[in-house]
Amino acid sequence: MRPVRAAATDRSLGDEVRRQRAPLAVAVVGTLLGLSLGAATGATGWPVYAAVLLVGGVATMAVHLRVGLSGVTIWGLVFFALGHLAGGMVPVGNGVLYQHWLVGRAVRFDNLQHAWGFGFAGRAVWEALRPQLAGAPAPRLAAAAVIVLGGTGLGAANEVIEYVLTKVLPETNVGGYENTARDLVANLVGATAAAGLTARALPRRQPVTTPTA
Predict the structure, then answer these.
(1) CA-only gyration radius of the chain, Å
(2) Is residue 1 part of a domain?
(3) Residue 158 resides in a domain
(4) Domain count, the chain
(5) How far apart are the first and last CA of the chain?
(6) Per DSSP, what are the bridge partners of residue 101?
(7) 119 within some domain
């Protein structure tokens, strides 16, 4: 993955909408198609998915306006959102795509979605905090630590939200203990992969400057 800008400046919403029109268009069109499919096939949870995507989109835009997320991260989060929507809205057999096994009984779509999504979520956390990490003596280690901790932390928060939803909604696609454990493992795998790929593009150590008289 390519390094990103370290500077943090306020950005105009209108300017950023124009600059990011491609990912925004993909996100909006994909969301409308996914929600329409869910409503047409009788998926009762489509309003919840709509609310989650709206909140996530607003939060991502707010962070981007503040720090300027990289194109790689923006596209990664767009496909994270659309993958989440497809997972809950696309019917497969007697269930939905989230429940579909891709590799035997070892890997489900849900697992790949978590690895991808919270890997990029961790990278977004790092990009948001990068200005504060500018003086870190070991940039690779600092970036990797922030990405892993950010990705797994947000993933754990997601599990808490899913637990709450199982208590307040009559029907969800959330599984039991094994599903939660698999999600946490996938979050760690994805965040670790994102950390490794991002850190490779950074210098091993901060260059030492010689003070002048």
Answers:
(1) 19
(2) no
(3) yes
(4) 1
(5) 39
(6) 108
(7) yes
Write out the residue range of the structural domain in which residue 102 sits.
13-200
- pTM of the shown model: 0.87
* Alpha-carbon torsion, ordered 11, 12, 17, 22, to 10 deg: -30
52-75 in b/e form (b: 16+ CB < 10 A) is bbeeebeebbebbbebbbbebbbb
26-65: pLDDT as tens digits: 999 999 999 999 999 998 889 999 999 999 999 999 999 9
Distance between CA atoms of residues 128 and 146, nearest Å: 10
Q: What angle do CA 120, 92, 171 make, to 5 degrees?
A: 80
**Closest by alpha carbon to 5, among 145, 206, 192, 201?**
201
Residue 3 placed within a domain = no
Query: What is the secondary structure of 34-66 as a DSSP string?
Result: HHHHHHHTT-TTHHHHHHHHHHHHHHHHHHHHH
Q: What is the pLDDT of residues 85-98, one digit of tens each?
A: 999 999 999 889 99
